[in-house]
Write a structure and sequence with these properties.
Elements: H1 5-10, H2 19-35, H3 40-88
């Protein structure tokens, strides 16, 4: 999946892509680069897009992990409260 200048103008900004769309596009970029069929300029544009996609995906995964950690902490706190409440009766 090499990108032409026209493709560049029509592509959504990385931040506007869903996680699934970004992953699919990143996979396509990797496949295109591994196929070694792109011209140098196309390879550089594709690589740059891939780096942007990868950064965005890592950021989203980090944010999701933080949310999970917070939720798990809340569950643990509730578990401790429940134990405390049952020992008082």
């Amino acid at each position: 999946m090499g990108f032409t200048d026209k493709d560049e103008e029509e592509r959504k900004p990385v931040g506007d892509l869903s996680f699934r769309e970004a992953m699919a596009e990143l996979d396509a970029v990797v496949d295109a680069l591994e196929a070694n069929t792109l011209e140098l300029e196309e390879s550089l544009r594709s690589y740059e897009r891939g780096v942007g996609l990868l950064r965005e995906l890592h950021g989203r995964l980090d944010a999701a992990q933080q949310k999970v950690d917070v939720l798990m902490g809340e569950l643990e706190d509730r578990g401790d409260d429940a134990l405390t409440d049952t020992t008082l009766s």
